[in-house]
Amino acid sequence: MGELKVKFLMGPAECNDRYIPAYSQEFLQGLSKAMGVEVKCAEMDEVKAQPLPVYFIASGGAEQGFKALYKETEEPYILLTTPGYNSLAASMEILGFLQEHGLKGEILHGSAEEIAARLKILKRVADAKETLSHMKLGCFGTPGGLIASDADFGVLKKVSGMELILFELDELVAEYEKGGYPENTYTEELKKKGYRAEEMEKALNVYGALKRLIEKYDLQGVTVKCFDLLDMIHTTGCLALAILNAEGIPAACEGDQKSLVSMAVLHALTGESGFMANPSCMDPGRSEIIFAHCTLPMDMPDSYGLTTHFESGIGVAVTCDIAPRPMTVFKCDDTLHRYYAGRAELLETMHKSDLCRSQMRLHLTDGTGYFSSRPISNHHIICKGDWKEVIDEYFSQIK
Q1: Each residue of 353-398: pLDDT tens digit?
Q2: How large is the angle between the packed helices 185-192 and 238-246, nearest 10 degrees?
Q3: What's the rounded Cα separation, in Å, for the pair 206 and 122?
Q4: In what order do the strands lie in the sheet with 251-253?
Q5: pTM tops 0.90, yes or no
Q6: Are 256 and 222 in contact (CB under 8 A)?
Q7: Are 140 and 112 in contact (CB under 8 A)?
Q8: Are 266 and 243 in contact (CB under 8 A)?
Q9: Could you tell me which of 320, 325, 329, 369 has the C-alpha nearest to residue 347?
Q10: Which residues, 6 or more positions from 204, have their beta carbon under 8 angstroms from its beta carbon?
């Protein structure tokens, strides 16, 4: 997570204990230990250059100092406090001032461990917002048969800074015909699986083409109208997208723009690769859903095999085994005002013949009601771990 710089504010020296600076330094040392990164005082220029500016309200009387500076940063205003020297009282006065001006703020108070846990979430969200604000996402083809999966490029740009760029699928095909792909851990491992060599080369050439286009246009994520590739180049994008997601490049299939945005947001917040999947079967009584698709990220399974794309029976797709573990199911729309984040437990991975190749049976903590009454279209994104608190915090900050 790196270091975290905070702006130190205290009241006039003549009205406060001369030991406050030393006390505050000791407090920051304990917080640094709890966070696992150095938390230190710095000048305002350094503090406000961070994605998460923090004001360290060290004593009573710091209110006027805050009032003189607060316009240099934006909400939410994070007020770090100690248990001594009227730090909390001054912060409450500041928070009241912010609320009177219609601004969001938060007081951090408690044990070093409690404050550290909250700061980690806030810093992760702030870092993600900064990352997303510079992202360019390439759409190779439109959603096509999907009627609720396109995005409003202008709205997304305004609310997040993320830029969606539309490319003709023909450009990907032309790049594919050049042939070639990077030799790396994933491609070498895949070729060692001994799957049909001709099909493997075609699938990896799609990966190579996308990698070159990502570099050419400085893209940080892609979606591909992959079903059209079946007729155009007689292979699929399944394996290419599986590798890209494992490499930390959000990659959605079927030209799904909302899913690409969701994958980008989820990866920025968690650092985890996301599995874009269809909810294929629900058991409301058990709060269970089976999700399935053919583009599982290569870094997600404990072990995997290779087979064909489900619907077409051609190309190369991944079938997986993953041990039971906590998961998060996520989706957002292009306005970022509507989202779903659900805690889930992976009960088992499956190998049914009538579903897409990677299959997960999940138990959903909050049940299946959202999926039957208000889903954000079809595809949803699944990642390892419980990230609901981080996701909820991110969307609470969207204006």
Answers
A1: 755 578 899 999 999 999 999 999 989 999 999 999 999 999 999 9
A2: 140
A3: 38
A4: 163-167, 136-140, 221-224, 251-253
A5: yes
A6: no
A7: no
A8: no
A9: 325
A10: 181, 187, 190, 191, 239, 240
